[in-house]
Specification:
By secondary structure, the chain is α+β, with helices and mostly antiparallel strands. It has 22 helices and 23 strands. The radius of gyration is 28 Å and the shape is globular.
């Protein structure tokens, strides 16, 4: 009989009830878990869990029973919106604390009950505005600044029925302008327009927090909602008593003077500014009380808040169009909170908040605790070899000491070129191909350190262990390497070394990040590190960051007519003139790219004025996200990914790169198209080589120039190794390439 009972139990377990796929994903994200963590716990592949969450497959016993148990426990912690009860004061559970902005003074964490309208979890971001024509704004007016304000907010909410939460019914941001009749108007995403009754900046902040219904839901359960963003036009600046442009002194200081009348108004009203003051990206706040933030972000384009190198002509757009551009970026990436670099770094923290709420204690209360998989709340020291020049760890070095490869980790992007061979000079064209979101692709799936390093003498190299390794790779000979599982013979002199940014073969021991040393092994050579700084606490910290930026890039490119999985010829045709189809969305693409590079660059931010002297700490060192080792690992992996493709290409075609700059590679060819370089057969690319496409890691056409152009430019500047990849896009060379 017991066997029959066991059979019945097994039958029931085989159909253990599971929530719908979308709910499975919501519950996982609500607890701050990654797909990798769930897969590891259930002892299945990452792709298996992704399939369960996408509804493509269903789990089977014994994993199904364990998966159902996990989801059931998470459902008790994070019930759906309809099941959320308003907690009483006695049973209040503290929300997880999140540090303020890097330049914002720290506020003591106060465990408190979240607002009743909050549903823990990861709400879907507000839908992106359609890429077509800007809809005619729906103006919501209030007859008087006081009595009719609630009516204005109610009408505004009715204008956006698809908003994920009523708190943010009007979207993440608004562009504040003054019309010809003197009315102050807030242009929101989706074409909505609100009439603003505020007469001063303090009143504008109050109106924004109490009635505008602006903001964006958190990207991770333990995190915090995005602060509302107000973008002030020139007319709005004049209305509120702010200068239309910063003076030279203010521009250098990055802010208006503390004695400015608007700053005094804010102080009298009890508002505070972060350490960066009232500048292009001003953050106005009151210390959090009861777990509730009171904070508004200002963006002032005429003060150069929207750097034209990354935002193009966004600062010159009319209010409705500017709201659309920033709204698409906010919905697909996050609400901008500074430069694209600052936003890229903040996105990492938003996806992996440093703390979360603990399980209830004996009194039923929750407390703030470390969020696994995050970088935590406190900064950690880097290894001495990872420290940039001037770091406090190096203060005892002689003043003019120059550290060599054996003292300093130098993982940077490629800047390499060589003279063309006689055979290449007989060809007609130079074709440049460029890797899409190369550094984002390098971050995908990368295991990085989460905590402090451990120093090890004579370690055995572990390709799965993040760290910095002192090892001699000078014996690696590119003339004979493994490509896949087979040894291949190459002309090593025509390839850059994978171990140095300048492509020079190393001459002795040097410091390298894990991906670089692992690649030496992959090429078939033994490695014996002399010492290392390794990080045993590690994880795939950047996976969610990569996925968010990848999806933003692909969605925006699709809006511009460039889709994934297009045939090579169709892709090249779609990329021809893509930016002109919708210049505003092209701005978003540019900003997404800058968010990738800038965010990674911020991981090793250098001193920015501040009266800094070598050997002294600078402000960025106080951030948990100041992690030069993570930046080095991403750059290392990106460079190695590119070199691997160049080796496969050379082994299969006999073609070698003429120049490489970061993520752009130039080849000599008889035709003008990448299809004259890349070996496609029946529409299929070389396995492990370059592939045309819009996805991160795939390549697009960067530009084509003639071989004669390349030879003439090098002769004109008397530079046989001038990096032609720098100028291949349009052929314009302004001065001698100095390598910077």
């Amino acid at each position: 009989m017991s066997e029959l009972f066991d059979a019945i139990d097994a039958l029931v377990a085989s159909r253990a009830p599971l929530p719908p796929p979308d709910e499975r994903r919501r519950l996982r994200k609500a607890h701050g878990l990654t797909v990798e963590e769930v897969a590891t716990a259930l002892k299945v592949r990452r792709a298996t869990v992704s399939g369960w969450e996408a509804g493509k497959t269903e789990p089977r016993p014994p994993e199904r029973d364990a998966y159902a148990r996990l989801l059931q426990q998470l459902a008790e912690l994070y019930p759906p919106p309809a099941a959320v009860a308003v907690p009483t004061e006695d049973a209040a559970a503290p929300a997880a604390t999140t540090p303020p902005h890097p330049n914002e003074p720290a506020t003591p964490a106060t465990p408190a009950t979240p607002p009743p309208t909050h549903v823990p979890g990861t709400p879907a971001p507000a839908p992106a505005p359609a890429p077509g024509p800007i809809p005619k704004p729906a103006r919501t007016s209030a007859p008087s600044p006081v009595s009719a304000r609630p009516a204005a907010s109610k009408a505004a909410s009715a204008g956006t029925p698809d908003a994920p939460e009523s708190r943010f019914a009007n979207g993440p941001l608004a562009v504040v302008d003054v019309d010809a009749e003197g009315h102050v108007l807030a242009y929101c995403t989706g074409g909505l327009m609100l009439e603003v009754p505020a007469k001063s900046i303090p009143a504008l902040v109050e109106w924004t927090l109490r009635e505008a219904k602006l903001g964006q839901p958190r990207l991770s359960g333990p995190g915090r909602d995005a602060d509302p963003l107000l973008v002030l036009t020139g007319a709005a600046l004049e209305r509120y008593g702010l200068p239309a442009a910063l003076s030279d002194g203010e521009r250098l200081a990055g802010r208006i003077a503390e004695g400015h009348k608007v700053v005094k108004q804010l102080t009298r009203a009890g508002w505070k500014l972060t350490k960066r003051g009232f500048g292009p990206w001003a953050r106005i706040y009151r210390p959090a009380q009861g777990g509730e933030r009171s904070c508004v972000q200002l963006c002032i384009p005429s003060w150069n808040a929207l750097d034209p190198r990354h935002w193009g002509a966004a600062a010159d757009l009319p209010p409705a169009e500017l709201a659309r551009v920033l709204g698409v970026y906010a919905s697909r990436v996050m609400t901008p909170c500074g430069s694209t670099a600052v936003t890229g770094l903040e996105l990492m923290t938003a996806l992996h908040p440093p703390t979360r709420a603990s399980q209830p204690d004996a009194d039923g209360r929750r407390h703030s605790e470390h969020n696994p998989g995050s970088l935590g709340s406190d900064p950690v020291d880097c290894a001495p070899c990872e420290a940039p020049d001037g770091h406090p760890l190096l203060k005892d070095l002689p003043r003019f000491h120059v550290r060599g490869p054996g003292e300093k980790l130098f993982e940077e992007a490629y800047d390499w070129a060589r003279p063309m061979t006689d055979a290449e000079c007989t060809l007609r064209h130079l074709v440049g191909i460029d890797v899409n979101l190369a550094f984002a692709a390098g971050a995908n799936g990368l295991n990085v350190g989460l905590g402090a390093p451990t120093h090890v003498k004579s370690p055995v190299f572990d390709p799965k262990l993040p760290g910095s390794w002192l090892v001699d790779l000078s014996h690696v000979d590119l003339s004979r390497v493994k490509a896949g599982k087979e040894w291949v013979e190459l002309d090593g002199d025509l390839l850059p070394s994978p171990f140095t940014p300048k492509g020079e073969r190393p001459t002795g021991p040097a410091w390298y990040a894990t991906p670089t040393v692992a690649y030496a092994q992959e090429l078939g050579y033994e490695v014996r590190p002399l010492e290392a700084y390794v990080r045993h606490d590690n994880g795939r910290y950047l996976d969610g960051w990569y996925q968010r930026l990848r999806d933003a890039y692909l969605a925006t490119m699709a809006d511009l007519g460039v889709h994934a999985d297009m045939a090579p010829a169709d892709f090249l045709a779609a990329m021809d003139g893509w930016a002109e189809r919708d210049p505003e969305l092209a701005i978003v693409v540019s900003a997404v790219k800058a968010t990738v590079k800038g965010g990674l660059g911020k991981l090793r931010e250098r001193p920015r004025g501040e009266g800094w002297r070598p050997g002294e700490p600078w402000r960025a060192l106080s951030r948990p996200t100041w992690r030069p080792d993570i930046r080095a690992a991403v750059i290392s992996r990106t460079r190695i990914n590119l070199h691997r493709k160049m080796v496969r290409h050379a082994a299969f075609t006999g073609q070698y790169p003429v120049a490489v700059l970061s993520d752009c590679v130039v080849y000599a060819a008889d035709g003008t198209s990448p299809l004259d370089v890349l070996p496609y057969r029946d529409g299929k690319p070389l396995p492990g080589g370059f592939k045309l496409g819009v996805n991160p890691g795939l390549v697009k056409h960067e530009g084509t120039q003639s071989v004669l152009w390349g030879e003439e430019v090098r002769e004109r500047f008397d530079a046989p190794e001038l990096n032609l990849a720098r100028y291949i896009k349009d052929g314009t060379v302004t001065n001698v390439d100095d390598g910077e």
